[in-house]
Design goal:
elongated
Length: 152
Amino acid sequence: MINLGPYSGKNCPNVRFHPTVIDRILEGTALLIVLVTWISIYWLYTQREGALLPAVWVMGGCSIFCFLLMGGLAYLPVRFINFPIRVTERNAAVQYLFAIRLTRVMNIILLLVLLGSVWGLYYAFGKLLLLVSFVLLGVAFIGYYILAFKYK
């Protein structure tokens, strides 16, 4: 269930959305971040001669889990999404598109947070990536709500 607001999508028409090139690029970017996370873990493992903190392995596992979970949520039917505005037949497709795109963007941002956490345990630039990720998180939510209310 994706909960973005108080209005349920249960009474909406069954909207089907076929992923476009932009959606595939977002999914590919998320996969690339997971691969970079695991390559970073392997590189840290070789540089530290096998002495990694257990949190690094946990974050690597969480990156795979989050990639699969958030990637799966992007294919949920409209009835499993709560929207910030009342959804009608006229605006159901646009609101569904915005919610699905937000889910894909959130997948990327969450994976960047996990990558920044892995790097942040050993390098200062990891903390900078965390900060940038949290700023992007706020921008994504603000942008979604602005678009959702604009196209209601």
